[in-house]
């Protein structure tokens, strides 16, 4: 019996981890920890396409996040954004990153399975010295940034172009805390 109950609790916890019931029409639902970024964007005026906020983790005092103002059902996916929304998200994140860190910036999006927040979020920070690994694509502007799919990606500037490192998992490790 105890085993059954434990198993049931385990299943409930597992489901709670992946289920995103964040509903902006129901403020109570946004009190869930995994909905807290959904709550953050709700404070911005509806006409704001992208919301910039400081990362509230005490371990990451120099980090910012870029968030699309719009929500999508369940665990929000980058693929639920239109091309225009996605370009606006990356452009705004990159502009903020440049403002903060000059040429030493990077922006990073973690693989979906690692998300603990339901709302789409791009990490903004300072690139660690000498980081350059994995597969990358060289592009000229944010509108050329490909869909990450379920994987993560990170982007940094090199000689006036952008490197897009695709097929990554935990990506924010390329950033200073
Ligand atoms: Zn949301
Ligand atoms: Zn690179």
Concise account of the structure shown:
With 177 residues, this protein is α+β, with helices and mostly antiparallel strands. The chain has helices at residues 2-18, 36-42, 83-101; strands spanning 50-54, 64-68, 105-109, 122-126, 136-139, 152-158, 161-168. The termini are far apart.
Would you spell out the secondary-structure blueprint of this structure?
Elements: H1 2-18, H2 36-42, E1 50-54, E2 64-68, H3 83-101, E3 105-109, E4 122-126, E5 136-139, E6 152-158, E7 161-168
One zinc ion binds at residues 132, 136, 156, 158, 163, 165.
Question: Would you give an account of this structure?
Answer:
- The chain has a seven-stranded antiparallel β-sheet with strand order 1-2-4-3-6-7-5, sandwiched between helices.
- It starts with a helix and ends in a 9-residue tail after the last strand.
- By secondary structure, the protein is α+β, with helices and mostly antiparallel strands.
- Helix content is 24%, strand content 22%.
- The protein has one domain: HIT family, subunit A.
- The radius of gyration is 17 Å and the shape is globular.
- The protein has three helices and seven strands.
- The structure holds zinc ion (2 copies).
């Amino acid at each position: 019996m105890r085993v059954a109950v434990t198993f049931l609790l385990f299943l409930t916890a597992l489901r709670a981890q992946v289920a995103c019931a964040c509903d902006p029409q129901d403020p109570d639902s946004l009190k869930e920890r995994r909905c807290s970024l959904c709550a953050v964007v709700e404070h911005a005026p509806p006409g704001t396409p992208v919301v910039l906020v400081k990362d509230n983790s005490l371990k990451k005092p120099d980090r910012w996040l870029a968030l699309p103002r719009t929500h999508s059902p369940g665990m929000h996916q980058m693929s639920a954004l239109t091309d225009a929304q996605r370009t606006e998200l990356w452009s705004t994140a990159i502009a903020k990153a440049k403002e903060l860190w000059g040429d030493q910036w990077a922006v990073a999006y973690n693989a979906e399975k690692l998300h603990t927040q339901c709302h789409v979020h791009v990490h903004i920070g300072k690139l660690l010295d000498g980081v350059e690994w994995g597969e990358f694509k060289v592009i000229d502007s944010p509108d050329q940034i490909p869909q990450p799919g379920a994987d993560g990606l990170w982007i940094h500037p090199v000689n006036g172009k952008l490197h897009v490192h695709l097929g990554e998992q935990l990506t924010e490790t390329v950033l200073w805390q």
